[in-house]
Amino acid sequence: MLKVGDKLPAGSLQEFIEVETEGCALGPNSFDIGKATANKTIVIFGLPGAFTPTCSAKHVPGYVEKADALKAAGVDEIWCVSVNDAFVMGAWGREQKTAGKVRMMADGSGEFAKATGLTLDLTGRGMGVRSQRYSMLVVDGVVKALNIEAPGKFEVSDAASILEQVRAAGQ
């Protein structure tokens, strides 16, 4: 399992892009994790699924609300990662009003979750293998703080908690 001091695993995540930019076409775009985190301070939070109750009512809204404070504290980007496809993450991002605040990164096949060891088996609930709920502070691809929730809990991976850690780390 991923721990503080580890480099993020190699791989890619996808993001649905609504406005074409240099290097990014409309629709899903794949981003190399190593390249996307190089020379940046990034807060990544993972969660079991788009449009699910706690994720939609508390987890994502907290990061949208605290985005400006996180960026003022030195965070370059905030990523929400879930085992959903880029189209679902894009639609969820529109609903949650994440544009310009939180990047909605799709881990469609759960490869990132598996590589980090942060999986959650929800097969019994009809959701398959998903991501655990967590937050992490990543500096230049290296994990500086990692907060993993106990199953069914939402106590340590919220935006306010990681903001305190970012400020304490002096990022």
Description of the molecule:
With 171 residues, the protein is an alpha+beta fold. The protein has a single domain, classed as 3-Layer(aba) Sandwich (Glutaredoxin). The chain has 5 helices and 9 strands; from the N terminus they run E-E-H-E-H-E-H-E-H-E-E-E-E-H. The protein has a 7-stranded mixed beta sheet with strand order 2-1-5-4-3-8-9. Belongs to the peroxiredoxin family. Prx5 subfamily. Pfam families: Redoxin. One of its GO terms (cellular component) is cytoplasm.
In short:
By secondary structure, the protein is α+β, with helices and mostly antiparallel strands. The protein has helices spanning about 35, 55-70, 85-95, 110-115, 160-170; strands spanning about 10-15, 25-30, 40-45, 75-80, 105, 120, 130, 135-140, 140-150.
CATH topology: Glutaredoxin
The CATH architecture can be named as 3-Layer(aba) Sandwich
CATH superfamily, called what? Glutaredoxin
Shape: globular
Query: In percent, how helical is the residue content?
Result: 25-40%
Please report the total strand number as a whole number.
9
Give the class from helix and strand content and strand pairing: alpha+beta
Order of adjacent strands in the largest pleated sheet: 2-1-5-4-3-8-9
Extract low-pLDDT stretches.
Answer: none
Report how far the terminal alpha carbons are from each other: 25 Å
How many individual domains? 1
Approximate strand percentage: 25-35%
Number of helical stretches of at least 4 residues: 5
The top level CATH class name: Alpha Beta
H/E element sequence: EEHEHEHEHEEEEH
Mean pLDDT: 93
**Major sheet, described briefly?**
7 strands, mixed
Radius of gyration using CA atoms only: 15 Å
Protein name: Glutathione-dependent peroxiredoxin
Enzyme class: oxidoreductase
Family: Belongs to the peroxiredoxin family. Prx5 subfamily.
Catalytic activity: a hydroperoxide + 2 glutathione = an alcohol + glutathione disulfide + H2O
